[in-house]
């Protein structure tokens, strides 16, 4: 494994999808927020324009009363635009979601007051509450299904609750559930279907990325993965302090295995060496296949003396373990390692890895089966 997070496997794909819908993991929730943030931002702005533009309907219903509703309509638009700004400026998801709930509650209460100020407004625009049931589908795509469903329940239940406590004296809250209840239930089912589509897309992208960063033979990281990870670790070490060391490992005289026992035996030998290395390093360390039988191991928060000890431990682990290549055939391999540590003069990953590579070749030129530390 490249310690980048292997795929979650389950025997029941349908059950796994349903579980992710009801109880999603953090990685999926973060993905959905990032993936749908722009769409939700655009839809929120469109909603704000619609809310203020519907003042024309107020005027058609009651031209005199519409003069008293334009201010409320504008306040609703401002509340909704603020939600778009939170999304645009990447305010943390939980804070943005909390504001969306508060904003929806406020806007719906303002809408009830708008209808109260119009002559027969509650009767003439009763179906106007249908507009609010579209909000989870349009502006709340960035939240998990359970949050969207709760948002829908809030929208459906708030007006009858307001009518029941006397906030809207003309509100026919007995008829309201007959209109909005089935619509809300249908939209919750639509949210569930959307979530299934979103999660399927997320899983497909995650698996494609996993294939791209995982060496198919060994399960270690690919060359691209190890260089990208090294770049991130370099940036992290420079920002927060702390050392970063790199090991370059090469299996000695590997060509002899292919020539003697064939390429399948050579593949088995490479897999065995990677398994031995992974058993000898920490979970926070990262191993990647750099090419052929050559590997890079990143050691975050590890200084040069400790990195040299890790390299020696890996060398001894490989040399001490007989590796089965075929029935009744086992060989003992050795490896050479180069060690280096991030310095202030390393301006790129290539510089850091290049120095480790030079140390590796120094170990090979000195007789192999040894560790060489870069000056």
From TrEMBL:
Recorded GO CC terms: plasma membrane
Membrane-spanning segments: 38-58, 70-89, 95-114, 126-143, 149-169, 176-194
EC number(s) recorded for this UniProt protein: 2.7.7.65
Superkingdom assignment: Bacteria
Short name of any one Pfam family annotated for the protein: GGDEF
Family annotation (CDD domains): GGDEF
Keywords: Membrane, Transmembrane, Transmembrane helix
InterPro entries documented for this protein: Diguanylate_Cyclase (IPR050469), GGDEF_dom (IPR000160), MASE8 (IPR048431), Nucleotide_cyclase (IPR029787), Rev_trsase/Diguanyl_cyclase (IPR043128)
Catalyzed chemical reaction(s): 2 GTP = 3',3'-c-di-GMP + 2 diphosphate
Limits of the GGDEF domain: 242-375
PANTHER family listed in its UniProt record: DIGUANYLATE CYCLASE DGCM-RELATED (PTHR45138:SF9), REGULATORY COMPONENTS OF SENSORY TRANSDUCTION SYSTEM (PTHR45138)
Name recorded for this polypeptide: diguanylate cyclase
Organism annotation: Nitrospirillum viridazoti CBAmc
